[in-house]
Amino acid sequence: MASASDGGEDQATLANQQTNIDESTVKEPLDLVRLSLDERVYVKLRNDRELRGKLHSYDQHLNMLLGEVEEITTIREVDEETYEEIIKSNKRSVPYLFVRGDAVTLISPHEIRS
Amino acid sequence: MLFYSFFKTLVGKQITVELKNDLEIRGTLVSVDQYLNIKLESVSVLDEEKYPHMKSVRDCFVRGSVVRYVQPPEESVDVDILHDATRREARSAV
Amino acid sequence: MSSMLKPFLNSVISIITNDGRHIVGHLRGFDQQTNLIVENCHERVYSMENGVEMAPLGLYVVRGDNVALVGDVDEELDQKLDLSAVRAKGLGPIQW
What family is reported (chain A) (predicted)? Predict the structure, then answer.
């Protein structure tokens, strides 16, 4: 098992190496988002909404513009008699969609299949 | 500022705005400000049967904070310009 | 800037609030935060059982944070609406 100090040193070296590579460096979360530009991403929003689409633009609030978008909304209802949970999904496709960042809960660079 | 500039390029175009209360409104974009508040004219509500609240409204102001989505017209999106502007903004943000 | 509301000054406006209420009245003032002064206003209460109910409110200051939408009411069009025949659920609240 590697000691904690070894791990720390490795991390420091790695960080030093990465300062030389500019555009591909990931130092903070938004850098990872930048690397997904022009790639398909998976975005989760509040209230059971999911989007898949090509990331064309974003800003520091995580406002985004996606292309060839597929939106899935999931509605959960409880049957009044049987108390069974009924899950309904609605799917729709949109050529371009601006998404306001305040509803975004996560972005994944990999297009996770449902 | 990036999306403020983007929306300014859509002035005069038909857009569809979806609010966080599920109301969907289509109209011509008249203006936008730094908060991404938007003003629309010649508006129509997509599901007027369900939402008859806007029947006598032609022009309206939508507070940026209640917008969930905006659908721009397909032909008015230039992805190359957006990619460049996004990279530029990402570099200058730090 | 929020001078976008300037053309609506002194005309009848229709406000949709973040908690889903629908308020109609004369816009007498506004500021940067979308705080609104509305005179002679009433709330339009929607239901599936009855027509639209008008609840008089008087002079209101609506806090900007609670404003979702402001519409410029075409009064001629509005008077032609038969609100007693309208059946609709109330609007839902703004939810992220």
Answer: Belongs to the snRNP Sm proteins family.
A48 reaches C (C-beta below 8 A):
no
CATH topology of domain C6-85: SH3 type barrels. (2.30.30)
Contact indicator for C25, C38 with CB cutoff of 8 Å: yes
DSSP letters, B60-89, are EEE-GGGEEEEE--GGG--HHHHHHHHHHH
Contacts of B54 in chain C (CB under 8 A): 14, 71
Contact B62, B25 (CB under 8 A): yes
Domains of chain A by range and CATH?
29-107 (2.30.30.100)
Domain count, chain B: 1
What is the spatial distance between Cα C53 and Cα C71, in angstroms, rounded to a whole number?
19
pLDDT in tens, chain A (114 residues): 444 445 455 555 555 554 444 567 788 889 889 999 999 999 999 999 999 999 999 999 999 999 999 999 998 888 888 998 899 999 999 999 999 999 999 999 876 665
pTM exceeds 0.90, yes or no: no
Token pair of A98 as six digits: 């601006």
Give the ipTM of the model, two decimals please.
0.95
Tell me the domain boundaries of chain C. 6-85
Any chain B CB within 8 A of the CB of A39? Answer: no
Question: Domain of B21?
Answer: 2-93
What CATH number is given to the structural domain containing B39?
Answer: 2.30.30.100
